[in-house]
Amino acid sequence: MTVWKTSRRNFLAHKGRMALSAVAVLLSVAFVCGTLVFTDTMNTTFDKLFAATSADVTVSPKAAADADDFPENGKPEALPASVVAEIAGVDGVRKAEGAVVSMAVTLVDSHDKNLGSDTGAPTIAGNWTDNDLRSMEITSGHAPRGPTEAMIDADTAEKHHLKLGDEVRTISVTGDIRARISGIAAFTVTNPGAAVVYLDTATAQRKLLGASDVFSHISVTAGPGVSDAELKKSVAAALGDPAAYKLQTQKEAAASNKDSMGSFLDVMKYAMLGFAGIAFLVGIFLIVNTFSMLVAQRTREIGLMRAIGSSRKQVNRSVLVEAVLLGVVGSVLGVAAGIGLAVGLMKLMGAIGMELSTRDLTIAWTTPAIGLALGIVVTVLAAYVPARRAGKVSPMAALRDAGTPADTRSGWIRAVLGLVLTGAGAAALWATTRADEASEGSLYLGLGVVLTLIGFIVIGPLLAGGVVRVLGLVVLRLFGPVGRLAERNALRNPRRTGATGAALMIGLALVACLSVVGSSMVASATDELDKSVGTDFIVQSNTGQLIVPQAAEAIKKVPGIEHVTDYKVLAAKLTNPDGSTVDEHVTAADPTYPQDLRRTTEAGDLAKAYGENAMSVGSDYAALHKIEAGDEITVAFKAGGTAKLKVAAITSDDTTVDQGAMYINTTTAERYVPADRMPTNMIMFATAQDGKEKEAYAALKSELAAYPQYKVQNQADFKEDLKDQVGQLLNIVYGLLALAIVVAVLGVVNTLALSVVERTREIGLMRAIGLSRRQLRRMIRLESVVIALFGALLGLGLGMGWGTSAQKLLALEGLGVLEIPWPTIITVFVASAFVGLFAALVPAFRAGRMNVLNAIATDG
């Protein structure tokens, strides 16, 4: 009980000094809990949506089980309409409805503006059935009654200011469907952002499936007292051919849909938790520094406790109890802040098009439990070393105010250990650059990153002595005696300076590493494009959709174009000369494609691969299956027949463009794949006539204005788009890393604030002998700047080493150009100085306000 009272008294006595440490715990716990609540809410949203939209039993073609959202020919797999009547007569079936659903569509308004989501959510077209009443209700107008009417969802109508009578156009592979809005239907569950358009059944069959007597699936409703499992069994028995159909109960269909979303949600969840972990790691340094300084400032008090009978264990326990109090306060506040963060993320997602309702806010009991456990455990672990150090203080040394024992031997051990770890990490990074396989190199890279990071943290105090002196010569000596005082203050406790700088080092190391990798990826891809791409224009979808035939025809009619190249991808099963059979994708392209993309040929003649019954394979595939030019491969097209194709060329896979692609002529594909099963173009290439590049570019854009889902790019556009995509990804990562950097800044603030308290008497004496308030504040600001620059130098140097090693792995995948983004590196370094100035504002202000006489009279 005495330990508890002492700890509580000390905690409350230093509550101002604990505040920033509590904020670090709060931010880290908030990020973890916010991530868990946000992803759990997304799971709940999709669970409700999938459960509401799934019938008691759904019957679909067996082939649809393996089909992508965007089928190769743009038309979903279908089953005969006659199956509806067959199922309707089964015992236990109350109702069977034929349904049409396609996500290979684009919805535009009368001004050719894309009405689909910008967040990757699909645009869904289909017919209106009673099963849709499970998840939607018509709020105005009526369902479509003919080919000139369409109904859209309320979210899309509200977002794009559409009303009854407005014209919309649904673009599919079989043609454009122009209709006026006859009704608006609202989701009764949360719509995560999909745009939905309903057509009448006949139009949906004809325009989305390509035939009037088929459906994409059948929704079956159970009769009274019939379970979904029983219904599925009865329907399966009636259909008789299990190889032709796929049957799912409501739970199975919902689970299947959820699985398709699961990987995306898991990646997002664990990525965000990873950044939260980085923030926790940085927070550890803050907490260690806080408790180390608090213990040092209470040396005499600890001595008195030992003199009156307190054991080392009790002193140790007293400090750890304070850590528990700090962890509990920070964690409880962090859990509450995490829920608020999750709501904020939901609002942000809503602003960019993914609707998530707070009605689905999901707070599992595990979320606060995890937040509290993490916050408390991390805080106690961080405080353990200072607590153990406090317990080692002997009563007589403490009463003499000798402070915590300085163990020279442990300092040497630390230095040697740090050098060994750093050297081992550097060796692993060097091994990364010499690896022949990416998988092997990845292991070396991971080991090198971990060892060098730990090594730099351990060796931080040793590095602080040298680096701060160099920075002092370059930066601080310009400020005369005040600058020298700031340098000595930073060097007074190298362990503290090293720990404070290391907190900032971690975040900036990751920033530098990712900047190097991102810049190298862009530079490598740009260099590869310059060497490989010979076409003038590239046409592809913004959303991964295939190019509909009417858009392809429009491209081929553009004046000033010398040639247009089709590029289709077909799923196939390949039987190789070594007897192995593998599932692969084969690229069907026109003979002009080698002009559009220059590929290095290792064997054979690529031009002959576009001949009759011929193909090419990539060098990696050829090496794996021991294929040589002239060998024969049996190709069984998923959408058609089987061909025996001669390997006319083996292309080098030392590239980033079309790496591993296998080429055949489009006419070869047409010989074995029926016209109605032939895939549409994934991408198209166009080359202008000499001197007409500018006119052809403008004409292409004008011709495709009616199809906003596609973008026309020349090579400059393509490079800029690639740069923007990498830049956007890096900006997201930098935004997440900002949390760790904020926590690091709090560490600098806390270190300075406690340092000012620790040096109260010294500051009073300096003021008494003539140091002005302005000079005092400048001294503290300069001390903060040099600590921040120390952390920045370590972080940027370490990060560039990681990034350079990572680029060597990318070189194995064809990204062979190393580019150091010096403008970014220099900007971050300079910004670190401003971070130091910002962190010193409050400590410097408080130091300047000290009463000189009171400060001199202070015991500490």
Verbal overview:
It is a single chain. With 860 residues, this protein is α+β, with helices and mostly antiparallel strands. Among the domains are: 56-250, no CATH class; 459-534 and 714-860, no CATH class; 546-708, no CATH class. Helix content is 57%, strand content 16%. The strands form four sheets. Strands 15, 16, 17, 18, 19, 20, 21, 22, 23 and 24 form a ten-stranded mixed beta sheet that branches. Strands 4, 5, 6, 7, 8, 9, 10 and 11 form an eight-stranded mixed beta sheet that branches. The radius of gyration is 34 Å and the shape is globular.
The helical percent reads: 55-70%
The shape is: globular
Q: Total helix count?
A: 26
**Overall strand count:** 24
In terms of DSSP E residues, the strand content is: 15-25%
Structural class: alpha+beta
Largest sheet: 10 strands, mixed
Quaternary state, please? single chain
N- to C-terminal distance: 28 Å
Give Rg in angstroms.
Answer: 34 Å
GO molecular function, one term: transmembrane transporter activity
Domain ABC3 transporter permease C-terminal: 275-395, 736-851
Membrane topology: Multi-pass membrane protein
Protein name: FtsX-like permease family protein
Short characterization:
With about 850 residues, this protein is α+β, with helices and mostly antiparallel strands.
Features:
single chain, 860 residues, alpha+beta, ten-stranded mixed sheet, eight-stranded mixed sheet, 57% helix, 16% strand, globular, cell membrane, Macrolide_Exporter_MacB, FtsX-like permease family protein
Write the layout of secondary structure elements.
Blueprint: H1 2-13, H2 15-53, E1 57-61, E2 79-80, H3 82-88, E3 93-99, E4 101-102, E5 106-109, E6 123-127, E7 136-141, E8 149-153, H4 154-159, E9 167-172, E10 175-187, E11 195-199, H5 201-209, E12 214-215, E13 217-222, H6 228-239, E14 245-249, H7 250-297, H8 299-307, H9 312-351, H10 366-391, H11 395-399, H12 408-434, H13 438-474, H14 480-492, H15 494-532, E15 537-541, H16 549-556, E16 561-575, E17 581-589, H17 593-596, E18 601-604, E19 614-618, H18 619-625, E20 632-637, E21 642-651, E22 663-665, H19 666-672, E23 683-688, H20 693-703, E24 710-714, H21 715-758, H22 760-768, H23 773-811, H24 822-839, H25 841-848, H26 852-857
Parallel strand pairs: 6-11, 8-10, 17-22, 19-21
Antiparallel strand pairs: 1-13, 1-14, 2-12, 3-13, 4-6, 5-9, 7-10, 8-11, 9-10, 15-23, 15-24, 16-17, 16-20, 16-23, 18-21, 20-21
